[in-house]
Write a structure and sequence with these properties.
This protein is α/β, with parallel strands linked by helices. The protein has a single domain, classed as TIM Barrel. Helix content is 31%, strand content 19%. It is built from 9 helices and 12 strands. The strands form 2 sheets. It has a 10-stranded mixed beta sheet. The protein has a two-stranded antiparallel ribbon with strand order 11-12. Helix 4 runs parallel beside helix 6. The protein is globular and about 60 Å long. The termini are far apart. Bound molecules: pyridoxal-5'-phosphate (PLP) and iron/sulfur cluster. Pyridoxal-5'-phosphate binds next to strand 2 and strand 3. The site of pyridoxal-5'-phosphate (PLP) has 7 residues, from strand 2 and strand 3.
């Protein structure tokens, strides 16, 4: 994956947490051994081009493989920055046809690549998705507010945001911001979050644990407090996927579990995400048990004291 930063991120690249997420380094192994290049088996579950149907009631659409900037730890490192994910009008029709034939899919996630970075195709998809009766819930995952906040001045994005707002009037609509570090929440990014809060959507966030970047209690406590205060509900905190070429970002599960336990003990319930691992070989996401239960009988409270829970 080529190094790619926006001018906005280049200006911030003096900050270690930004540099480590975006600058290519010699720590990166050569991703030529492809043993784990798709550990989540997304390709196997791609039922028609662009549509990943892995969980019974949910489907994920990769709107493109393009992003404003390339995160070195991207799970989809094998695809990002290539044109192979561009969807044609025929692909869009095939996706809609599949969703119509599978009314058990009630929840559709637009991902990629970054759907807000490709407003043309995302608009085309939403125009059709919003009219499929069995699709009750829509979500968009994005990192654009943190990579190119200036883009929200563009007409194409403003028009897409109006369509999202209009759709959100009829169906629950979630925007999932991928944020990993408080240093990403600049004044510009916070202004975009304020703008998104004007829409009829619910703002959620997702975070990836990145070794040496955000795997500290204080860093994440600060991140989640600031997101919560900005009206963003933290959703998932991921263990970094075991993908070739990004293994140096994956941290220790015991350390992460201890941090997630402490976050749960101290943050407001709404401000605390669920710590998740997406199991390799395509077995799906599981919540990691935190350190509150010591055995079948006892629970360990927020102060580390043991109590019987019945
Ligand atoms: C994560 C994911 C979803 C959504 O999962 P939730 O747990 O409902 O957020 C859907 N499809 C795929 C392929 C996913 O990876
Ligand atoms: S914005 Fe998301 S999809 Fe794009 S490179 Fe970063 S993590 Fe990957």
């Amino acid at each position: 994956m080529k190094e790619k930063l926006t001018p906005y991120l280049k200006n911030l690249s003096g900050l270690p947490a930004i540099a480590a997420q975006y600058l290519a380094t010699t720590a990166e192994p050569n991703a030529c051994d492809l043993e784990y290049d798709d550990p989540l088996l997304e390709d196997e579950h791609e039922v028609v081009k662009g549509l990943v149907h892995k969980y019974p009631n949910r489907a994920l659409i990769k709107v493109s493989y393009q992003c404003a900037a390339h995160c070195r730890f991207c799970t989809r490192i094998r695809q990002i920055g290539t044109n192979a994910g561009n969807l044609t009008a025929t692909d869009v029709s095939s996706i809609m046809e599949y969703l119509t034939r599978h009314p058990e899919i009630d929840d559709v996630i637009l991902s990629g690549g970054d759907p807000l970075y490709s407003p043309g195709i995302t608009t085309q998809l939403l125009e059709q998705l919003r009219h499929i009766p069995s699709v009750n819930v829509l979500r968009i995952g994005t990192r654009l507010p943190l990579q190119l906040p200036g883009a929200f001045q563009r007409n194409t994005i403003k028009e897409l945001l109006s369509l999202i707002d209009e759709t959100g009037k009829k169906k629950p609509f979630f925007i999932l911001l991928h944020v990993n570090h408080p240093d990403e929440l600049t004044t510009e990014a916070m202004d975009v979050i304020k703008l998104l809060r004007q829409l009829r959507v619910t703002l959620l966030s997702q975070t990836v644990f990145l070794k040496g970047i955000n795997d500290e209690y204080d860093v994440l406590h600060d991140l989640y407090t600031r997101l919560y205060h900005a009206g963003v509900i933290p959703y998932y905190l991921y263990h970094c996927d075991d993908v070739n070429g990004i293994g140096h970002f994956a941290g220790d599960i015991a350390k992460e579990t201890a941090i997630a336990t402490r976050l749960t003990a101290t943050l407001s319930g709404i401000a605390c995400p669920t710590y998740i691992i997406d199991i390799k070989n395509g077995h799906g996401k599981i919540p990691v048990p935190l350190n509150f239960i010591s055995d079948r009988k006892n629970t360990i409270d927020f102060n580390g004291k043991m109590h019987e829970y019945h």
